[in-house]
């Protein structure tokens, strides 16, 4: 798959916490309409990298450009065109899904918000729970609500940090299918982190392996399997990580 | 500008959504002021019946209690709105959106005004019916007095929130305690002259001191000098600017040290 003009361009990005480099000289780009999987074990630096793209953490050095604009200097216009979801972040449980989507729709300046919310509630099959407290939703419904929130502003870039981490396999699979379907439909760029190598194989056009803050390999899943003569990405990763 | 107002009102709306369905949050607005009022009210009734009572005791104590509560609630509203987002693990959703920290704080200030109006309506009315104390006897003076208390509450609320942003849960206790720290020096229930002379400069550095001194002067003499108002306005303006600079510095440190993304974990 050929990617469009780069949506994200990261150069020599470094984040040190005290003496420890959580992200250590990462250079990467994500093209328009591309799904990129950022893979790595726990502690590899995936979340730190995503948070720097969102301006939530400031880099120690290096540069980030999103939609051709520098982050964090132009955070506001960048964030208006992007969105974010993570297994470790929630929407307020005491608000209803409709209230939550209304608040975030207004934060993102969504036009025709009421209709947009109805459309998303229907698409993600949470319409019948729309006016109950979010606390009453099942785990699967909550994850669909989070996805609905992250699509409210019809983003050109979606940053997903372990979106399926706390889901059971069935819900995780459905979530992946939804992400894929929406990405095809809307042509948005997705940067998706996971420590589960297997799940990304099917979803990503391209994967990046992050290990101790450094990018150690990248390519389409197929290329990587061929290059390292392995059956699946997990084995590819183990081979790289162990310096084989 | 239009986008700014929209984002401020979105956060404001998010917090208003909490109230109709939450008894405990409604209690938070009404319960404490109500209890304070009852205790202080009956105390003043008792004191005013004792031999040698100061004639204005009711007004001094109830006026002080109602006004102090305005400062305290104003501070609380800022901190509680922030803690609410932290506890519900919603901060990252907010700060990953186009919302700026300044817009967030602006929304919490607006919320503090609404909570102030609701709680004050109740306490002022009850003080009148139960103890025949009419706060509006302070007349036009009430406007600058109350304004200065609200702004000073914002200052303390912003400073507290900034410290929590930077230091996390360890600092949460400040949300309940920092305003109380200024109470002894603010001449709330007694004049500045009751303080040891070494502490008086501290008192005069606090905008609240001028408000409570002014209140007593109005109650006894029916008016007060203009200097009672210039000083707290100027002090508040300076403190608000400093509080905002401090907040921005703490926010930046939290971004640099990766604390912002760890809050509430
Ligand atoms: N705020 C922080 N302060 C200090 N160390 C941190 C902070 N955030 C992350 N780290 C460290 O940086 C490394 C990368 O963390 P993280 O980006 O969360 O990894 P991942 O998301 O890949 O599991 C870890 O060793 C982690 O302990
Ligand atoms: Mg992570």
Features:
heterodimer, A: about 240 residues, alpha/beta, Rossmann fold, 6-stranded mixed sheet, 4-stranded antiparallel sheet, 9 helices, globular, B: about 260 residues, mainly alpha, about 0% strand, binds adenosine-5'-diphosphate, binds magnesium ion
Task: Describe the protein in words.
- The complex is a heterodimer of chains A (244) and B (265).
- Chain A is 37% helix and 27% strand.
- Chain A has helices at 46-53, 75-80, 97-107, 113-123, 139-151, 169-186, 197-203, 221-228, 233-241, and strands at residues 6-17, 20-31, 35-39, 61-66, 69-71, 82-86, 157-161, 189-194, 206-211, 214-219.
- The mean pLDDT of chain A is 91.
- The longest helix of chain A is centred in the last third of the chain and has 18 residues, at 169-186.
- Chain A has a six-stranded mixed β-sheet, with helices on both faces.
- Chain A has a domain at 1-81 and 189-244: Rossmann fold (3-Layer(aba) Sandwich), CATH 3.40.50.300.
- Chain B has 265 residues and is mainly alpha-helical.
- Chain B has one domain (2-261).
- Chain B is built from ten helices and no strands.
- Chain A binds chain B through residues 15, 17, 22, 47-48, 51, 54-58, 72, 75-77, 79-80, 83-84, 86, 88-95, 99, 102-104, 106-109, 133, 149, and chain B through 3, 6-7, 9-11, 13-14, 17-18, 21-22, 84-85, 88-90, 92-100, 252, 255-258, 260-261, 265.
- The complex binds adenosine-5'-diphosphate and magnesium ion.
């Amino acid at each position: 798959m050929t990617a469009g003009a780069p949506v994200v361009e990261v150069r020599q990005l470094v984040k040190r916490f005290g003496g420890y480099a959580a992200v250590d000289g990462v250079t990467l780009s994500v093209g328009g309409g591309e799904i990129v999987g950022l893979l790595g074990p726990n502690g590899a630096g995936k979340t730190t990298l995503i948070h720097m793209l969102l301006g939530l953490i400031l880099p120690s050095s290096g540069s980030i450009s999103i939609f051709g604009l520098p982050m964090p200097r132009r955070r506001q216009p960048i964030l208006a065109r992007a969105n974010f979801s993570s297994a470790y972040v929630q929407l307020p449980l005491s608000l209803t899904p409709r209230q939550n989507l209304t608040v975030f729709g207004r934060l993102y300046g969504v036009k025709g918000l009421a209709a947009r919310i109805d459309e998303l509630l229907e698409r993600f099959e949470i319409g019948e729970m729309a006016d109950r407290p979010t606390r009453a939703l099942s785990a699967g419904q909550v994850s669909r609500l989070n996805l609905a929130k992250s699509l409210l502003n019809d983003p050109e870039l979606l940053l997903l940090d372990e979106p399926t981490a706390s889901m059971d396999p069935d819900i995780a699979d459905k979530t992946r299918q939804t992400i894929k379907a929406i990405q095809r439909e809307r042509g948005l760029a997705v940067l998706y982190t996971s420590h589960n190598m297997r799940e990304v194989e099917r979803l990503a056009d391209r994967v990046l392996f992050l290990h101790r803050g450094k990018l150690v390999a990248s390519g389409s899943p197929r290329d990587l399997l061929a290059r390292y003569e392995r059956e699946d990405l997990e084995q590819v990763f183990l081979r790289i990580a162990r310096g084989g | 500008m239009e986008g700014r107002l929209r984002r401020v009102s979105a956060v404001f709306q998010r917090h208003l959504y909490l109230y109709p369905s939450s008894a405990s949050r409604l209690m938070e607005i009404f319960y404490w002021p109500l209890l304070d009022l009852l205790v202080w009210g009956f105390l003043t009734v008792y004191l005013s019946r004792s031999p040698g009572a100061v004639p204005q005791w009711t007004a001094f104590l109830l006026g002080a209690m109602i006004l102090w509560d305005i400062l305290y609630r104003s501070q609380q509203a800022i901190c509680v709105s922030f803690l609410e987002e932290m506890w519900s693990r919603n901060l990252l959703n907010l700060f990953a959106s186009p919302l700026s920290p300044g817009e967030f704080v602006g929304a919490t200030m607006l919320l503090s005004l609404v909570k102030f109006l609701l709680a004050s309506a109740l306490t002022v009315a009850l003080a009148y019916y139960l103890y025949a104390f009419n706060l509006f006897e302070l007349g036009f003076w009430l406007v600058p007095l109350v304004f200065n208390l609200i702004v000073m509450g914002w200052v303390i609320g912003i400073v507290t929130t900034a410290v929590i942003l930077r230091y996390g849960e360890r600092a949460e206790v400040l949300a309940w305690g920092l305003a109380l720290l200024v109470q002894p020096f603010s001449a709330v229930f007694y004049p500045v002259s009751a303080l040891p002379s070494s502490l008086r400069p501290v008192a005069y550095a606090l905008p609240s001191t001028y408000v409570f001194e002014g209140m007593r002067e109005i109650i006894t003499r029916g008016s007060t000098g203009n200097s009672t108002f210039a000083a707290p306005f100027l002090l508040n303006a300076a403190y608000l600017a400093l509080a905002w600079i401090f907040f921005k510095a703490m926010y930046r440190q939290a971004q640099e040290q990766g604390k912002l993304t760890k809050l509430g974990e």
